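Side project, low priority. Logging it here so it doesn't get lost.
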Amino acid sequence: MDTFTTIAILVTISSFISYINHRYVKLPGTIGIMVIAIVLSILILVSGKTFPEASGFFKELTSSVDFTRTLLDVMLAFLLFASALHFDVEKLKAQKVPVLILSTVGVIGSTTIFGFLFYWTLPLFGIDVPLLYCMLFGALISPTDPVAVLSVLKKSRIPSSLETIIGGESLFNDGVGILLFVTLRELTESSSDAFTWSHTLILFVQEVVGGLALGIGSALLCMFLIKKITELQTVLMMTISMVMGISVLGGLLHVSIPLAAVAAGLMLSNVQLGQTADARSLKEILDKIWGLIDDLLNTILFVMIGLQIALIHFYSAYFVISLLAILFVLIARAISITAPAILLSRRLALPYNRIAIVIWAGLRGGISVALALSLPPSEFKPMIVSVSYIIVVFSVIVQGLTLNKVVNKLVD
């Protein structure tokens, strides 16, 4: 199946599922879309013997899309840029301390806690997985997914300051999570003698600092150019080409594409295109167009997540392990957030009822599935992929659907 045909079919399926959700199911956008996509996938797979052609076509379509590369190398930069473009920078500055701590200490702590809990529990099922792989699993499942989080928060009645903390955390913790994942994955592919702290520090500087530098540099160049024009088509094309350039250069330079996209989006979020009415109108239209791009890519992404069920192998033992893994994810996030909140209570200023909201709002999404699928072949990969997928489905559907109820219950 050629690329254009794959894209055309995927967009058609996405539009059909979106219509069904808005016309009949009426679940919140991304949640309903993923639910329908999963149900559709299961129905097609179950009816495989009755309609083998449909089942074969469906599997061919899903396998023709490299989910990991499509999300991490192509879609993620656009999604993060669009989300950051609509972020209030002044509110983010006011909440910079909790956002920084949650996106660093929170991710590292959650990775460690989950890794040990998973490592200690698996022998009960007769499965022996090295601690390094358990930590690797923790690194890919600990970061909250900005696409999932921000899409749910859009229609939530969560307090503004808390929304800024949760949204800001989800935008920035990918850099730390992906850095941990890449470092641990290198350790699984090489001997322990190859690991040095200097190498890890160089990798950190290259990924994080390099990503921020790429994003800031790209945004400065784009801002300099678009301030001199007032034509919407040209401004839009320049911002799109900037995001594409970040994706390409980020891959070539081996720096963090997510951090670069977020940095560029935040810098352009408050850019002034001029003082005239036409210039202000241009900025409003540009924001609306990027909001539409965000919604369209979100729809396609969650359809792709739902369709991945056709390629993932599930075994009965995995479901029991998945239930425990879901519990471990929540425990790890609770401890990694509550501990800093208690130790730094004056700086974080997070009351206990709001800590519970932050814990429950930590949704996982496509990034976790993509990272799991990117693991090198091993005897542990099928289990990690399957359990990751189930955690993501639980996170988006259960936590996403109940988030408003938790907010209403805990916010005065």
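Brief comment: The chain has a mean pLDDT of 85.
Revisit when time allows.
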